[in-house]
Task: structure prediction
Amino acid sequence: MRLATLRTASPDGRLVVVSADGLRCLDVPGFPTLQSALDDWTGAASRLAGLDRQLAAGEGEPLATGDLLAPLPRAWQWLDGSAFRSHGQLMEQLFGSPPPPPGRPLMYQGLSHRFLSATEDVVLPRTEDGIDFEGEFGVITDAVPMGVTPEQALGHIKLIVQINDWSLRVLAPVEMKTGFGWVQAKPACSAAPFAVTPDALGEAWRDGRVHLPLTVDWNGKRFGAPLGGLMEFGFHDLIAHAASTRDLCAGTIIGSGTVSNPDYRDVGSTCIAERRGIEMLDEGSARTAYIQFGDRVRMECTLPDGRALFGTIDQTVRSPRS
Result:
């Protein structure tokens, strides 16, 4: 099942269920927004499933894809992990930093009051800040109780999403040295238009991981297509980590961190920082520049039948003065 949010006068938009081909949709009576459905997922699930069956039977109105917001345009909480060990090992090798304690995921709490749509321009103040994209997968939970186990956490994963976690690389090291986490270095993320239930992935959803490639094109050229299944910690582990000392509210979004594979020289990367790191190791210095105004970034996760599972993120970065 695929869910989306249509633009309205409200910042939370209007929830719709979307057909498998992405062409038709139906409103959800009683649940005007995705957050309202997450707040009462037990009550919403059967209604959503019924609408999905109606769409499969050919019902529904044409979907105005140009009017789609992020599936959850603003969220109560955005927790981003760094669950791909190959990316972490590369950064540790470059900067001489120690690895994290064994068995402990890396995670920070980021900006959640706004998620950009998949097609709106990304407005950032300066190219000198080192503008970078970061392709990720993420999950959206219902209410998660404190102390949940990883096995229990799997049942709290209601939706899977695709995210571009925009980063300002020049600002990040300055904020990291404070020990208080990122603020300036992490602007709003972008989200692909469709949030999907785990069953929509079939065999590609197992072990709390998305076993599909995330393809990234930068200015029309393929930048990388690493597999999402090679996480050191699955999403269920990340949820259990986040909920170890507190409840998680319904609508919490948890990210995988930059999708990365050990053979990154062959499959490419989903962020520029990783490519620059490889160049520093192989050639002694980084030669790939960060994003310039006017650059275009495209991301999608394609099923074997050719469909973009989450739809496509396709955005241009621009100056606030343009």
Q: What stands out?
A: Residues 147 and 244 are 5 Å apart (CA to CA). The longest strand covers residues 157-164. The helical segments are 34-39, 41-56, 85-95, 150-154, 172-178, 235-242, 264-267, 272-283. The chain has eight helices and 20 strands.
